[in-house]
Amino acid sequence: MKYLFFFLLFPVFAWAQTDATHPFQVGAKWHRGFIIAHSKELIDVSRSNPYGFELNAHWLLADEKSIRQTGLIAKRGIAAYYFNFDNPSVLGHCVAVVPYVEPLIRPWGRLYGSFQLGLGAAYLSKVYDEESNPTNLFFSLPVSFWAMVNADIYYKIDKKWQASGGFNYNHISNGGMKSPNKGMNFPTFNLGLQYAFQASSIRRPAKNNDWKKQSRNFSYLLLGASVKNVPAEPAYPTIEPSLLMGAQWMYGRRVGRLSGLSAGIEMVHDGYDRKLLDRLGDPTSTWKGGILLGHELLVGRVRFTIHLGPYFYNPSRTTDALYQRYGLFYRFGKHVLVGSTLKAHRHVADVFDLRIGWIW
User: Fold this and answer.
1) Same-domain pairing of 48 and 128
2) Structure pTM?
3) Which residues constitute the domain of residue 185?
4) Which of 103, 174, 203, 238 is the most buried if burial means most Cβ atoms within 10 Å?
5) pLDDT per residue over 29-83, tens digit each?
6) C-alpha to C-alpha distance for 101 and 304, rounded to whole angstroms
C-alpha cells in the first residue's frame, strides 16, 4: 500500500505540462454531509454528519488543441481532503489525496456547471478492531481507496475569482483487501471559492466533427493484479495475503464525442478464494471468467469505464452471478493505458486492482 499514493498521483504529474494556454487555478471548499447506512449492521454507527474541507489545484484545458481533440473544456487536477466523521471514538477522521478530471458545462457563461470524476487514496485514523473498535465495520485498513462522482455550479465574480456550490458522492473502501470492509458512502454538499493565477476568458468553442475523422473502433488488453488479505480463523491464527491476477480484453466503438460502448471478456485467478477453499480441503478451481458490457466516458487521455456482466466460468460459486467493474485510466502516448478498477457485487465492493495495458 505504501506505493499507492505515488501510483495514483503519477498521472497528475504527467498532466502538469502547463503554459499560458493551460492556466493554473486553485480552490478551497467546505463540506458537510451524511453517511448512508447500506446494511443493517451500519445503522447505529451511521448516525453522524461528516464535515471537512478541500484544497484543490488544477489546470484549465481551454486551448484550441485540447478543445478540438475532446470537444469540451475541462479541468485536470488534484484535490486534498480532510474529513471529520463526527464520531471521534469510532470513526475518527481521514485525509485523502484524489486526482480528478472535471468536464465543464457551458463555461463561457458567468454561471456554469461541471461534473467531476476522481480516484485516489485516504488515510483513516480509526479502523475496525475486534476488541477496541468492534462497531466500525466500514474500515479495516488505515490506507484505503477513495472514489468520487461530483457535480458543481460556479459563478464568476470577476476574471480571477469564482464562487462554487455543489454535491459530492464519496466512497471509501479497501476493495476487500481486508475484512470487515463494508465501505463508506457519504454524500456531502459543498461551498467554495476558486482563484485563477492567470486571468483568462473562455470562448464558446466552434462545433466540429474532428472526432468522426478519427478511428471509431478501439480495442485494448489489460493486465491486472491486487492483494487481498484472508482473515484469521481459530485454526489459522495469522492473516494471510493472497494475490488476485488476470487479464481483460475489450472491443468497442465510439458513438459520440465523449462516449463509447464496449464489450469483452476477462479471466482472473482468485487467490483469496483459493486460500479459503484450501482451508476446507476443497480442490475446486478458483479461476473466474466474465463477460462485460458497458459504457466508456472518453475525456482526452482519460477514460472512465462502467461495465456489468455475468460470470461464464465460476466453478467455486462464492459470489453473485453478476458483477460490476468501474475503471479510471490515463493514456500515456498513443497506446499505454494505466489505471485502476473496482470490482463490486451489487453494493458490496469486492476488490480494487491496478492495471496496465495496450490500446489500439
Assistant:
1) yes
2) 0.77
3) 4-196
4) 174
5) 999 999 998 777 788 888 899 999 999 999 998 777 767 666 788 898 999 999 9
6) 10
Strands 217-230 and 184-196: unpaired
Q: Residue type for 261, please?
A: L
Instruction: For cell 494475490, name the residue.
Output: 243
Report how far apart, in Å, the C-alpha atoms of 209 and of each of 57, 212, 214, 331, 360 are: 31, 5, 10, 22, 21
- Ranges assigned E (strand) in the chain: 24-33, 51-61, 74-84, 93-105, 111-124, 143-156, 161-173, 184-196, 217-230, 240-254, 259-270, 287-299, 302-313, 322-332, 336-345, 348-359
Q: How many domains does the chain have?
A: 2
Cell of 89: 471514538
CA angle 273, 275, 277 (to 5 degrees): 65
| 136 and 217 part of one domain | no
- Residue 78 maps to a domain: yes
In a domain, 314, yes or no: yes
Dist. CA 99–CA 37, nearest whole Å: 27
Examine the domain organization and report whether 187 and 231 are in the same domain. no
Residue with cell 466552434: 206
User: Do 11 and 116 sit in the same domain of this protein?
Assistant: yes
If you average pLDDT over every residue of the chain, what do you get? 88
Tell whether 163 is covered by a domain. Answer: yes
